[in-house]
Amino acid sequence: MTVDDLQWQVDTLGGVLPRLVEEIRDRGGLEALVQAAREREDWFCAVGAVRELCAAGEFGRAWAVVEPFAATRWQSAVRTGADVLLRWGRVDQALELARPEGPKESAVDASRDYAVVLVRAGRVEEAMGVLGPHLRGGRVLAALVEMTEGQGCDERVLELLVPIAEDFRRDPEQSGVRDLWGVLPAQARVLERSGRVDEAIRLLGADVAARRYGPQNNVGFYAELLARYGRIEELRELADAQRYSAVVPYVTALENAGRASEAETYLRDLIAAGRPGWHENTLMELLIRQGRFDDAIKAVEHTFDDLYDGNLLQGALILLADQGQHGKAIGLTEGRSPEFLAENEAYWFRSNRWWLMGESGRAREAIAEIEALPADEVEDRELTIAWLLAQDGRVEEAIALLRPLPGKRAATDLAELLIRQGRFTEAIAVIPDVAAQREEARHGRAKRQESASPDAGHVCDDPWAAWNTAPLE
Predict the structure, then answer these.
(1) CB–CB of 287/299 below 8 Å?
(2) Structure confidence by residue, pLDDT tens digits, 107-125
(3) DSSP codes of every residue in 214-247
(4) pLDDT for the residue 460
């Protein structure tokens, strides 16, 4: 086990996908996760097993799972291991594990994680001392605010934050500007939780008025702050001035206050004034939340045949499906213009239609549509048919179709079906382990480089194709 292998798993979602791990956990496959963590050195399986064991109070077994990973000193494993030890009541051992081991690349992350352990051990002042040298970085500022919530030390936290915030307000162009934008909402958040809401609103309002927005979009944070305290009129003024970030919080605040009709009128006025764009999407979402499905469709259906930006058809399909309105959604896939179909049919339109049909009990009809098309016109043909077979209750047929197919996508789909049958160990076994996946990635990268070489005699027609077919190193 190496730090490089562990980091690769996180960076590329290598090994067993987290969503599959969660499904194995939910279906009672704990022992299969423990085995995969031990034998395959699979990080996501280890995390899933640790969470399940801790939830059951089996902290000794949880530590046995994570200890080999933590021994590498990889920071994510150190953090997880320290959490297990704290839950187990082994505070001194947790502190020893989390204590930074001198200068290294992850010194900031290590100091942050160590401070979290100190806080949980009741040594809050010491934790703030550990963070002090790193406070002019956004990640550490956020960690300070989060870890001290409910610790009764808000005034001490403000003593650390206020000088940094004031320095930043005086000179936003100083070094590290992108990291320090977070100090403004951080100060407001601590003021808010300490009961000084008016002061938080006043300070952050002044920052927004002075256009101190930043890449973290402090306007959005300010809008949510106003909404939390029912400052609807102030929120309306902000939405009028800062439409991009404040309209949705304003609409949501009206809706939560039982004033959905005002929200609808506001959005329709914006659209009528010649500013449609994402306001139409917000209107559609509002109407769907109100159960007014036909009104929602009517509000945006004029975009459904647009060829490029502004087409809300896919968003409408997903929102309707989320509300169980599969029939209405499928209806929207019918009667589209030939121009629209020429641009989108193979790209996303057909797959969405078949997904909706599979979800609504029309899987056999969807399979018939696929089989009526030339095989080379349907991307991921076998994978789609296998999913539809499973939706139709023909799981063994789906498994048989998936087994001989190459690639991680097919292995993942196969594993998902096996998990649903309670065949957890077999499901994990069909997914290539980390070493095999890394080798596949290296092979794919070598092929891409060979194809791109001037000596290869040709250039790949689709420069993005390789990125879609192989994991990245």
Answers:
(1) yes
(2) 888 999 999 999 999 999 9
(3) TTTTHHHHHHHHHHHTT-HHHHHHHHHH-HHHHH
(4) 36
In the chain, DSSP finds a helix count (H) and a strand count (E) of: 31, 0
Determine the Cα–Cα distance for residues 308 and 362; give it in Å rounded to an integer: 30
Decide if 283 is inside a domain.
Answer: yes
Domain range for 302: 275-347
For the entire predicted model, the pTM comes to 0.85
Tally of domains within the chain:
1
* pLDDT at residue 155, as a whole number: 95
What pLDDT is recorded for position 70?
97
Nearest to 256 by CA among 222, 229, 276: 229
- How far apart are the C-alpha atoms of 442 and 472, rounded to whole Å? 8
Integer angstrom CA distances of residue 41 from 38, 46, 65, 68, 321: 6, 8, 10, 9, 38
| 238 lies in some domain | no
| Calculated CA dihedral for residues 146, 148, 153, 158, nearest 10 degrees | -40
What residues have CB less than 8 Å from 274, skipping those under 6 apart?
none
Residues with pLDDT less than 50, the chain: 175, 177, 456-473
